[in-house]
C-alpha cells in the first residue's frame, strides 16, 4: 500500500515512519489492506481542522481523535485484484493532535503509542470494519486492533474496560 502522509500542527517526531509501521501492522491482521494497489492518505493535524472535517462530513460539531473516510466498499476491497489495474484510493484518515495528546495523557501512555493505535483503528475503518452497529462487530474490530498493536509491542488499549460498556 502506498501511504501519503501530511503533517501539520504536530510536534517534531518521525510520524511518517510511525504511520508506515502502523499500516503494516494493520495489514498483517487484515489481509485486504496488504493489496499493493491501494493508496491511503493520512493527515496529522490540529483539533481545529478535525473539527471542521467532522462538522462538514459527519455533521458532528466537535473535534474527535481520528476520522476515517473510506472510498471503497468492503466487497470491492476484498475482491480487488492485486496484480492488475491502476492504483485504487482506499481512503483518508485525519488525526487531531490536541485530542490525541490529551487522551494519551489521560491513559498514561505515550503519544506515539496512542497515535499508532488510532492509525490502526482508522485503517480498519477504511477496510470496512466498524464498532458502532453491534457488540459483535465492535469486539471483532477491537480484537484486530489488539493483534496489530501486539505485533508492535503496544499493550492492549482496551484491557482496562468492559467491551460491553
Question: How would you portray this structure in words?
Answer:
Helix 1 (15-29) links the parallel strand 1 and strand 2 (38-45). The chain has 165 residues and is of the alpha/beta class. The chain is 46% helix and 17% strand. Mean pLDDT is 94; it is low at 161-165. It has one domain (2-151): Collagenase (Catalytic Domain) (3-Layer(aba) Sandwich), CATH 3.40.390.30.
Which key terms come to mind for this protein?
single chain, 165 residues, alpha/beta, Collagenase (Catalytic Domain), four-stranded mixed sheet, 6 helices, 4 strands, 17% strand, globular, disordered C terminus
Question: Secondary-structure blueprint of this entry?
Answer:
Blueprint: E1 2-7, H1 15-29, E2 38-45, H2 47-58, E3 66-70, H3 74-78, E4 88-96, H4 97-107, H5 111-126, H6 135-151
Parallel strand pairs: 1-2, 2-4
Antiparallel strand pairs: 3-4
Amino acid at each position: 500500500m502506498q501511504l501519503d502522509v501530511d503533517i501539520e500542527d504536530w510536534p517534531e517526531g518521525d510520524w511518517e515512519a510511525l504511520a508506515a509501521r502502523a499500516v503494516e501492522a494493520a495489514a498483517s491482521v487484515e489481509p485486504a489492506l496488504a493489496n499493493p494497489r491501494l493508496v491511503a492518505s493520512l493527515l496529522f493535524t490540529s483539533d481545529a481542522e478535525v473539527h471542521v472535517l467532522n462538522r462538514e462530513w459527519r455533521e458532528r460539531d466537535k473535534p474527535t481523535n481520528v476520522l476515517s473516510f473510506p472510498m471503497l466498499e468492503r466487497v470491492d476491497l476484498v475482491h480487488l485484484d492485486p496484480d492488475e489495474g491502476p492504483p485504487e484510493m482506499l481512503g483518508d484518515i485525519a488525526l487531531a493532535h490536541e485530542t490525541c495528546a490529551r487522551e494519551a495523557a489521560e491513559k498514561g501512555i505515550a503519544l506515539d503509542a496512542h497515535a499508532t493505535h488510532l492509525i490502526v483503528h482508522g485503517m480498519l475503518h477504511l477496510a470496512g470494519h466498524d464498532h458502532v452497529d453491534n457488540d459483535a462487530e465492535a469486539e471483532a474490530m477491537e480484537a484486530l486492533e489488539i493483534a496489530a498493536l501486539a505485533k508492535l509491542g503496544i499493550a492492549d488499549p482496551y484491557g482496562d474496560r468492559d467491551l460491553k460498556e
